[in-house]
Amino acid sequence: MNALAKTDFSPWSLAEAVVSDLVRKGTHVFDGPLDAAACAGLLAEIRATRRFDQGLFLSEADFAAAATCGVEGPRPGCNLLERLDPRLAFVERAPQIVEALWSLLGPDYRILDKRVVCTLPTTAVPEWVKRRLAGGADSLAAYVRPEFRDIDYACGADFHQDLGEAPDAGADVVTLHLHLHPVGESDGPIRLLEGSHRMGGSAAPHDLKRCATGWRYRNPEHGEMYVTERSLTGEAGSAALWHACTLNGGPPAAEQPRVALRYLIARGAAKAAGIDAVNASLAGPASFAGRRD
Fold it and tell me: Do 257 and 119 meet the contact criterion of CB atoms below 8 Å apart?
């Protein structure tokens, strides 16, 4: 998909802030929310398609009998947002979103992927699935009934990079995340390790140790650094961007599922864009093969 036409707004103040934030922190959190009424309408349509409880999942017997190796979540032809696409203009045409993406990725930036993402509370996950997840998997797609795989589900996620999700685009990629309802600390918010992008691309699991001021992040080839954790809490319509090398993860939701939108957006053909300055700040590689050792 191609970028939408740039609309009228203040020319460069936001653009400069976005590029500066991505260089320094690997993240940018937008000051004001998007249309809360549009968020509520979209959320109502999403919730009307299913119950976010253990009914999402295969039985253990059906899982054992099914060919679930390599099963994916949302993909072309199996993505709830394909049906709800007319409702997404409030995101994709929002002036602050267009300005930020334009400044980072050039005027012909490309939306590589967009999906509904849901962080479930542990009570919504069957016990037999929890036992299997003890091995470290983050995605629940293989355990979910086929008709419900048009949403991406998790029950908490280890810190990871989004870099491996668009290997052909290298580090010229950002993630856009949007809350569809208010999110507090008990709702399993995304947690970003600000500044972690500067270590460059590396496979999970990452060498992290919690300390008094945040986290110590170590890469044997590129040294170590101390980074700050930021929780993406906020009201409906709250939005944030982060670089493909920024570590992100989060806990399960405590009681109610957290439902949000996630976009993966890449540079177009622009010869110069703000992402160049961001990638120039990386001490490590701007790509890597694979996602997890």
Answer: yes
Residue 151 token pair: 């949403």
Give the pLDDT confidence of 85-139 residue by residue, as tens digits: 999 999 999 999 999 999 999 999 999 999 999 999 999 999 999 998 875 556 8
Whole-angstrom Cα distance, residue 274 to residue 162? Answer: 19
Which residues share a beta bridge with 234? 183
Residues sharing a CB contact under 8 Å with residue 87, sequence separation 6 or more, in sequence order: 38, 41, 42, 45
What contacts 158, CB < 8 A, 6 or more positions away?
136, 138, 204, 205, 249
Question: Peptide bond preceding 86: is omega within 30 degrees of 0, i.e. cis?
Answer: no
**Could you give the percent of the chain with pLDDT greater than 70?**
92
pTM beyond 0.70: the answer is yes
Domains of the chain: 13-280 (2.60.120.620)
